[in-house]
Amino acid sequence: MESGVITPSAELKRMPHLGHSLLPIVGTAALIGVGFGVFKVRVEVMLVVAAALTGMLANRLGLSWREIQAGMMQSIMKGLPAMLIVVVVGALIASWIAAGTIPMLIYFGLGLISPKMFLVTASLATGIVSLLTGTGYGTIGTVGVAFMGIAHGLGIPPERTAGALVAGAYLGDKISPFAANANFAVAVAQVNIYDHIRHCLWTTVPAFAVGLVVYWIAGAQHEPAALGTVLAGDAIREALAHRFVFNAWLLLPPVLTLGLAIGNRPVLPGMLLAVALAVVLAISVQGMSVVVALNVTVTGYEPRTGLAVVDKLLAQGGMEKMMHVTLIALCAFAFSGILQKAGLLEPVLRLMHTFTHNTRRLVAATALGCLVVELMTGAAFVCILLPSELFGPAYRRLGLAGKNLTRVVGDCGIVGVPLIPWSIAGAFMSGALGVSVTSYAPWAIFCYAGVFFTLLAGFTGFTMAPRKNEDETQPGS
After folding, report:
1. Which stretches within 8-100 are classed as H helix?
2. Which end is more exposed in the chain, N or C (fewer Cβ atoms within 10 Å of the end residue's Cβ)?
3. 41-68: b or e for each residue (b if 16 or more CB lie within 10 Å)?
4. Which range has the worst mean pLDDT, 19-33, 196-210, 335-349?
5. pLDDT, tens digit, for every residue of 342-382?
């Protein structure tokens, strides 16, 4: 679980004011917007430049290089668990393809799933898996990759598919009792996890339902598959059947993963065990040599089916291919560490805090605070931590239960991170699904629809629960 806070350095000769805070906020937005958005300079470069300029500002405020470096290292250390999961998911994708698990899901999915209901099915499937596993990364890396393959065979636009899959994957990150982000949010706000989940349903259900309705409408408008598309789907199935041996044993890796999640076992060891099982299946069922099966987890699977489209489809995974995601994460966390060590986020959040005199303003300020931190850092744990610590006392002052705070943080912080191109989540989703963040973001409806419903609750007062108990970690608070 990600946790902890980076406190501003004692070396600061003067505390930053609002003008200081706006410099990195506006500057970074301009850098990334122009550099990445217009000129297509890689986001890693833009983040390094932003970190360098923010470091110069921190130095003007009194921070030595030693303190700036300490802030970067602290932030990177707190992000290491997420980075380790991303690397292991690379091995998971490659091993499940080598074993034949993902190819088998694609093969039968092409024959069973209706194009008109595909987006609805994809979002529901990833939503259920993420609820059971508590990890959006693992869900996208396995079930998500399989659905992208099915979408290709059915002629479904990849950006729509990726958006529906990401929306489903982040359902679990918000309300699964096994999710690291959900548990971190309730730990910071000192709220019972099951009270948080039940309270979140008021905004989660309608937000997810809006997405399903849009996917159903988009599917209903999907033209019947042309003969060329049908033949392409048949060719994909034929190539998969020729290259892989399919049997029930190949379902063991996903069954094991779900079983460990339901048993509330740690995520990382469970993933490694699923990788090991998939390697055994690649050797015993697919006839792969031990050396090749082990190396695949690092380099990724190299298909040779004789059909170019299938080879491109299955050339996925491997720990090496996840290193670009880790690089973006390192740059983003380093930048975030400087911001926090120099106290540059606090003036903006304090300004928002001054307007929290009633429920409407408090919910709006919390939502805006989450969005600002989300855009600035791209780190889920910072989006959870800073707004929760800053606005938590205001919720108590107004007699509101802490689960109202965790709901806003979930709607405006947790599920929005994969829509940020320079976040580790956005980079991972884009890399695993082969679709840019800016392309799939409009279709990941659940990831932003919750903002509307949480603001609606704050402005109307409907479902804003009053504080009952002093200790809200107890069930029924």
Report:
1. 18-30, 43-60, 65-99
2. N
3. eebbebbebbbebbbebbeebebeeebb
4. 19-33
5. 988 788 777 877 788 899 999 999 999 899 888 877 778 77
Using the predicted structure, report yes or no on whether residue 1 has a pLDDT greater than 60: no
Evaluate if residue 150 carries a pLDDT over 50: yes
pLDDT at position 4: 46
Structure token digits, residue 160: 């729509």
d(CA 134, CA 171): 9
Query: DSSP code of 322?
Result: G
Angle at 92 between CA 85 and CA 318, to 5 degrees: 90
Quick check: 260 and 273 in contact, CB under 8 A?
Answer: yes
Closest CA to 120 of 38, 39, 203, 218: 218
State phi, psi for 466 to the nearest 5 degrees: -75, 155
Domain ranges of the chain: 79-322
Q: How remote is the C-alpha of 174 from its chain's centroid? A: 10
In angstroms, rounded to a whole number, what is the distance separating the alpha carbons of residues 411 and 452? 9
For the entire predicted model, the pTM comes to 0.78
3-state SS assignment for residue 466: strand
Q: What does the block give as tokens for 80?
A: 């290491």
d(CA 437, CA 396): 37
pLDDT digits (tens, 9 = 90+) for 268-316: 888 899 999 999 999 999 999 999 999 999 999 988 887 777 887 788 7
User: Residue 212 and residue 174: Cα distance in Å, rounded?
Assistant: 17
CA 230-235-240 angle, 5° bins: 130
* Cα–Cα distance for residue pair 131/127, rounded to 1 Å: 6
Residues 6+ apart with CB under 8 A from 120: 164, 212, 215, 216, 219
- How many angstroms separate the CA atoms of 277 and 269, rounded? 12
pLDDT at 129 over 50: yes
User: What are the C-alpha distances in Å from 150 to residues 128, 164, 229?
Assistant: 18, 14, 12
pLDDT bracket for residue 247 (50, 70, 90): very high
Report CA-CA distances (Å) from 151 to 139, 164, 228, 236, 442. Answer: 16, 11, 15, 12, 18
d(CA 454, CA 362): 12
